[in-house]
Structure formats: C-alpha cells, structure tokens
Specification:
With 248 residues, this protein is of the alpha/beta class. It is built from eight helices and nine strands. InterPro entries: Glyco_hydro/deAcase_b/a-brl, LamB/YcsF/PxpA-like. Pfam families: LamB_YcsF (PF03746).
C-alpha cells in the first residue's frame, strides 16, 4: 500500500497549480499533489507557489505534464511527433523538478494529464514515450496512472513503480477507461454520488459503468479534480471518511 503523510488507508490526490481557487485548502486534506508544469497550464510562478504550499503541507509532490496544448487545456488528442512529445514532456517534468530542487522539496511521482493520460494508458507506443522520459529524468519517480489499464503492466515491466489511480468524480466504461467528458454522466457532479463511488472503491466492490458493465478496480490512490467547483467539499468528505479509521 502507498504510504501517505496523513495516515489514510489509501492515498488521496488532486491536480493542482491549474488556477483553481482552492489549492491551499485542498492541500490540507489530500496526500498527493499533481502540479501542472507548463503543458496544459502552469508556469514558473504557479509551480513555485504550489510547491511551497505542498512542502508546507507535507504532501507528496508530483509532476502533471500533458500534451503542449494550453488552448484545449490538454484535453484533446494532439497530432505531434514522437520527438516533439518526448522533448516537451522532458522539459515539463524537469521544470517542476528544478523548482522542487531549488526549494528543497522531493518530487515523488509523475501523473500525465488529460488526453495524454487517457491515451497513454491504452496506447503502448505513447506509454513507451512516457516511460522513457521518466527513466531519463529519474527512474525512481513513480508513475501514477489509470488503475487496471495496460500501461500498469507495461511500466512495471520497464522497472517503474506504479500508483494505480481511481477517480471519485468520474464514471468509467467497461474497458476501465474513463468515460469521455462529452458523455452524459461522465463527470459526477453530486458529492453524495461521488462518495458512493468512493465507498465502492474502498470496499473493492464493482462499479457500474456508463455502458452497463460491472468493473472492479484495485486502487492505490483516489483522485479529485482540483478544478471542479465541488472539489474542496468532496475532498473534505473523503478525508473525513478516511480519517474515521475504517479499514479497506
């Protein structure tokens, strides 16, 4: 099981440094922060601010790279050469690493963002580029990726340590992929519904996918999207649930 600073029975992560209003408050309840590093958003100033907050809060710090596509917030597939993508990811992750180094913080993991996250989880070639970049920068960096996806075993076979991630606020399809955001119901808007999914994940009970299947996921970490309007209220609910000391 992934250790975490607050003693939760499971890691709780959020994507930060994306211009959301609740980063500082979220850092009080989460245990891992995925910090945007210039691909979909984020710059030197936002990285420094978020790393300082994360360092004060004692959470695990991770890089959150994406396709270099700020116009679409990294949420659309991108036509890009392998070399261009490799170079961009290398620069993004290294930019956050440099900020961490300058502030005496340790970078713990890498979690890709948006379309790159979803595609690399199922595309062996894209997964290979991501693995290559991480190994070039620091092979001890953990890779946070979609639980149950082919990239889990692919990355393990290349010697990386994996954090399998499930989502509190997103629905799934039968193949364990996230339902596309344009599908009705893909984003869980109600805290009560999100907590129901969290309870199913904690109890290792199957989730009902949007295409009608039952899907069982084993997760090391639960994600909250930091840019959602209800991210903070949901994070507090999950934190209270985990703090209650109930066993998985």
């Amino acid at each position: 099981m992934l250790s975490n600073p607050k003693g939760y029975p499971i890691d709780l992560n959020a994507d930060l440094g994306e211009g959301g209003a609740n980063d500082a408050a979220l850092l009080q309840v989460i245990t891992s922060a995925n910090i945007a590093c210039g691909g979909h958003t984020g710059d030197q100033s936002s990285m420094q601010t978020t790393v300082k907050l994360a360092l004060t809060s004692g959470v695990h710090i991770g890089a959150h790279p994406s396709y270099p596509d700020g116009e679409n917030f990294g949420r659309q597939p991108m036509v890009i050469s392998d070399q261009e993508l490799l170079t961009s990811l290398y620069q993004q992750i290294n930019s956050l690493k440099a900020v961490c180094d300058s502030l005496g913080a340790k970078m713990f993991h890498v979690k890709p963002h948006g379309a790159l996250y979803n595609q690399a989880a199922f595309n062996e070639h894209l997964g290979g580029i991501l693995i290559d970049v991480i190994k070039r920068i620091d092979p001890t960096l953990k890779l946070m990726i979609l639980a149950g996806s082919p990239l889990v075993n692919q990355a393990k076979s290349h010697g990386l340590t994996i954090i399998e991630e499930a989502f509190a606020d997103r629905r799934y399809l039968a193949n364990a992929s996230l339902a596309p955001r344009q599908m009705q119901g893909a984003v869980i808007e109600e805290d009560a519904q999100a907590m129901e999914q969290v309870e199913q994940l904690l109890a290792n009970k199957p989730l009902t996918t949007l295409d009608g299947a039952l899907l069982r996921l084993r997760a090391d970490s639960i994600c909250i999207h930091g840019d959602n309007e209800h991210a903070l209220s949901l994070a507090k609910l999950i934190s209270a649930r985990l703090t209650a000391g109930k066993k998985l």
